[in-house]
């Protein structure tokens, strides 16, 4: 079976993560470029399944690489994933403006990288900044065995953080109902548990116990509704 091809810069630490055969080498073939220009040339030659780059590089930064890839007709649909430092909203906006498809935050681990490069994407998706929002969230397992209701801590167009003292296992598939203010019908979609903030070992001390959920099949109509809600949150925060 053909492995998916991942293209990145040779001097990036990302390439070393592919030494972990159990996580990446079995599923992905790594192609490395020495310069940003060579990376774009190799992309045209190999038509990789995903391109990985850092935002700041000496030869050609990730922003410019993304613009060149997206500006090349035969590469325009190739996902470009950029490695960024956390806590720098300006970098996310640079990635978004350049047309990047996704970002992965430092520090990058094999597990995190495998999750990001294997993530299903729809046209126009981007992991937007998360905004504080306390929304009622109902969720069930795919088998419908248990229905629970808790509240979100923050939300974006790509997912949300759900507060709960009984975190689910990473990878657990869920069916979600999201109750937005002033809307009769909830937004509904499938989701998966992307990470957990366990009560006994908090990965992020600034968040309560809970789980980070990734949306998987939010409809285009519901995506627009969620974006409108997030815009209202931003407008209210600026008043």
Give an overview in words:
26% of the residues lie in helices and 30% in strands. By secondary structure, it is an alpha/beta fold. The N and C termini lie far apart (55 Å). The mean pLDDT is 80.
Overview in brief:
The chain is of the alpha/beta class and 239 residues long. It has helices spanning 21-25, 36-46, 62-70, 89-98, 110-117, 220-238, and strands at residues 4-9, 28-33, 50-54, 80-84, 102-105, 131-132, 136-141, 147-155, 159-163, 173-179, 187-197, 210-215.
Which labels suit this protein?
239 residues, alpha/beta, 6-stranded antiparallel barrel, 6 helices
Largest sheet: 6 strands, antiparallel, barrel
Number of strands: 12
Radius of gyration: 19 Å
End-to-end gap: 55 Å
Work out the strand percent: 25-35%
Shape: globular
Low-confidence stretches: none
User: Strand order of the main beta sheet, please?
Assistant: 7-8-9-12-11-10
- Pattern of helices and strands: EHEHEHEHEHEEEEEEEH
Overall SS class: alpha/beta
Fraction of residues in helices? 25-40%
Number of helical stretches of at least 4 residues: 6
Mean pLDDT: 80
Layout: helices, strands, pairs:
Elements: E1 4-9, H1 21-25, E2 28-33, H2 36-46, E3 50-54, H3 62-70, E4 80-84, H4 89-98, E5 102-105, H5 110-117, E6 131-132, E7 136-141, E8 147-155, E9 159-163, E10 173-179, E11 187-197, E12 210-215, H6 220-238
Parallel strand pairs: 1-2, 1-3, 3-4, 4-5
Antiparallel strand pairs: 6-8, 7-8, 7-10, 8-9, 9-12, 10-11, 11-12
